[in-house]
Amino acid sequence: MSYAKSTFRHPSLQPNQLGYDKRAYEGALSTLCAGCGHDSVGAAIVQACFEANIEPHKVAKISGIGCSSKTPAYFLGKSHGFNSVHGRMPSVATGANMANRDMIYLGVSGDGDTASIGFGQFAHVNRRNLNMLYLVENNGCYGLTKGQDSATTDVGSVSKKGQANPFTAIDLCATALEMGATFVARSFSGDKAQLVPLIKAALRHPGFAFIDVLSPCVTFNNTTTSTKSYDYVRDHVAATGAIDVIPMQQEITTDYQPGSSHEVTLHDGSVVHLYKGDVDLDVTCKVSAQEAIRRHQLEGAVLTGLLYMDPQSRDFHQMINSVKGPLRDLDEAALCPGQKALDAINASFR
Amino acid sequence: MSAIAAVNDLVIRFANVNGTGSASANGLFAKACFRMGIPVTPKNVFPSNIQGLPTWYEVRVSEQGYLGRREGIDFIVCMNGQSLAEDIASVRSGGYVLYDNSKPLDLRLERSDVNFIGIPLAAICREEYPDLRRRQLMKNVIYIGALAALLDIEFEVLKDLIGDQFRGKDKLIAPNIHALEMGYRYAHEHFDCPLALRLERRDLVGDKIMLEGNVALGIGSVYAGATVVGWYPITPSTSVIDAFEKYANRLRIDAGSGEKKFAIAQAEDELAAMGIVIGASWNGARAFTATSGPGVSLMSEFLGLAYFAEVPVVLFNIQRAGPSTGMPTRTQQSDIFACAYASHGDTKQLLLFPEDPRECFDMAAESFDLAERLQTPVIVMSDLDLGMNEFLCEPLVWDDERQYDRGKVFNQQQLEEMSEKFGRYRDSDGDGIPYRTYPGTHPDKGAFFTRGTSRDPYAVYTEKSEVYVDNMERLLRKWESAKQLVPEPQLYQPDNASEYGLLFFGTSTASCLEARDLLQADGFALDCLRVRAFPFNQTIEQFIADHRQVFVVEQNRDGQLRKLLVGECDIDPKKLISVPLYDGMPITARQVIDHITATTRSAVVTPLRQQPARG
């Protein structure tokens, strides 16, 4: 890490449509290890929010505990953040979203936070289809406590500790699909070209969007024998194909050849273009996604890219039929029935 | 044979099998007393079971207005073969036993000192109703009809109650009234009605109401503007959420769209329930949850976060008998320690202690104001007795001019006009209470990072000892500010009249005041104080200082409130005498008196002159 953040900005740096330059999306200086995958994920979040023209203060960042959960301090410095307790980010995010459905909720977690202590909460936030992006920075180990294996460590993977992990790994994407997520993707912190559009699409998705980002731990789990190292992931990656998000009413301009893409239209009229790769996958079919994940797993490959999205997603507020605007903005006049109603209530108790 | 003779002063117990529909019939009895203008206290004694185990419903009728439980069953309605022997044995000498004599009573159960009233309920039902379920349900209504004759309940009152109970299902009204009449007629034809033990109309309840504390908490939360609820089912707290949902569905639906102006999430566990409350409060909504002992244990980590990160939380703790799963359908006040110091590290949590449903309503509303004003958890300490039994109390009142106190929150305009840097944890007013902002308020100002780690006044992570200590000391200043804001204790005398004090809280109140009256009649005066909140304020310290000895009545084994008083107010432990009544049943005046008498006999204080009369 360096000790001072440079304030220099290239004079030709263009602001986005809202007039914010990229700096408006940055945060405090990272205190993670030099080369940590998580910092690349943070940079991708900055880039995605900038490109997606999101007002920085309209994002709420919520996390649990661990290296990953510290990262919200290092991006979106104009946003409120909440570094809560270990494994409980999903419930805090649920409450926050219930209070004000009009903001963007960005949950950042790690493999320990999500696949172990918070596995129950993770399962249930999927079921609620809470409108949020839940992003896991998955390094297959516990960094802050010095490198213990986590529940996503593959069988046989050997970290710096030197012991082969004997326990079955939890595949978070497969879990999310099973538990009801309506947008599921996997990516790699070393592949910003893939990750940025995925984050943009996930932020726009009206429901629970899950991205499992393999994000190597350079200090404890970047060994030649680890399946979560930079080299291993690069060598074993198979991608579902690039995606591009086209907001409603924006002209489609891409470099890809017409006819080679698959379009998925979102509720608000935005379009996600999926450019076909080598992988046989229908992203709107859950069974197809589950099958593709499993097949690649058996072949020893890591399948990345968009795996599944449900264009008919109905989020938690729609399920429970709550009012359109933020509940937190309702005042006494809207909320308190007054003494007259109470007189009738009293009468019913006599 | 002797027969207890009394008007409007009795304890009647109904012994039933759980899940046989007895609850609504028994409720008719209590409500009929209430509508005849006589003070009444029903208590449900029920098992942790859905169907099959014994359950009892005990009603005390007291013309003097004593609403605590009383020992000594004057009349028992025996409708459960499993508990028959125990039930018959439980009646006072001279009391009455109503039983089903369709089959002869086992001779071994007969007692010569009580009055048996046999009614062939099963036989009547067999003749009247072809289907089994109906036989079971109507049996309950028939014995209520018989009681109307035996105890002189006004029949019109019962008929009105049936009409209210089945409003909307009108075709059930006539058959139920017919069942009442069958019982009434049978009793009149076979016994001298009314008995020497009976009821008589009075005008003693005024405009009072009867409801459960949990219902009042739910209604109070609707009135207080709560919009977000996260919860997990646990006895005896579940009906708080049921009530909130019921009244919100009635009163909080947007007229145009039919959409709800509230959001409820049944969470995966109590940890998540508390996480939802914290997330919603942090984001500016009024949010709450309700739970009981095991849930409090699970919520503790989050309660520590809310204390330290300074996020409002409203938690209704409907206490039950612990430890662990304990006696989940029995009452206790045994979570004082678990709540007052909930979570690891140095924490102190605000507690409120309601005594009846009216105060549940008031304190529900107040808890949201306090939590937001002080940016900290507020735990309302109800219990199973208060939560799940109907209490006679004053009607609910709401001042239509009342504004919610949302506490110190900077809005967009205030942030816009601010020249200095916003400091989330700066004590700019000197009261220990900082200013907060809701997420999304302003594009450039007011954002901060909420965390459970130590931080400086600007919410920036720090491990500097002096900054950490400054913050912990500020939290103590906030605690001092809280003492000025929490409800004052209730004193029951204009001036102290005795060297001895009686201190109690919550559902011990009615029995403690009755004990005071009985002891007073016997020449032993006690000054009374009811604690309504933690932190304890000066009035409580003064009350203790002003008395030579203070008895502290509480429904737990270890004298938790007493120890909290000793520790927090730095009081000589010898001054406070514990009266621990924790068997899981609502306490009685007799138990309070016996403890005080036993203590005074052991010469710690001046001996009493004699045992008082029956309470």
From TrEMBL, chain A:
Any one GO molecular function term: oxidoreductase activity, acting on the aldehyde or oxo group of donors, iron-sulfur protein as acceptor
* Origin superkingdom: Bacteria
Tell me one Pfam family matched here: TPP_enzyme_C
Q: Which GO terms describe its biological process?
A: cellular respiration; small molecule metabolic process
Q: Which residues form the Thiamine pyrophosphate enzyme TPP-binding domain?
A: 65-213
Q: Which keywords annotate this record? A: Oxidoreductase
Q: Which SUPFAM superfamilies match?
A: Thiamin diphosphate-binding fold (THDP-binding)
Q: What is this protein called?
A: 2-oxoacid:ferredoxin oxidoreductase subunit beta
**Taxonomic source organism:** Gammaproteobacteria bacterium LSUCC0057
Automatic annotation (TrEMBL), chain B:
Could you list this entry's UniProt keywords, alphabetically sorted: Oxidoreductase
GO annotation terms (biological process): response to oxidative stress
Record domain Pyruvate/ketoisovalerate oxidoreductase catalytic: where: 19-184
Which part of the chain is the Pyruvate flavodoxin/ferredoxin oxidoreductase pyrimidine binding domain?
A: 221-387
Q: Oxidoreductase: present as a keyword of the record?
A: yes
Q: Which domain of life is it from?
A: Bacteria
Q: What GO MF annotations does this protein's record show?
A: oxidoreductase activity, acting on the aldehyde or oxo group of donors
Residue ranges the record marks as coiled coil: none
Name one matching Pfam family.
Answer: POR_N
CDD domains (UniProt xref): TPP_PYR_PFOR_IOR-alpha_like
Query: InterPro entries from the entry?
Result: 2-oxoacid/accept_OxRdtase_asu, Pyruvate:ferred/Flavod_OxRd, Pyrv/ketoisovalerate_OxRed_cat, Pyrv_Fd/Flavodoxin_OxRdtase_N, Pyrv_flavodox_OxRed_cen, THDP-binding, Transketo_C/PFOR_II
NCBIfam families, alphabetically?
OAFO_sf
- Give the protein name, as stated in the record: 2-oxoacid:acceptor oxidoreductase subunit alpha
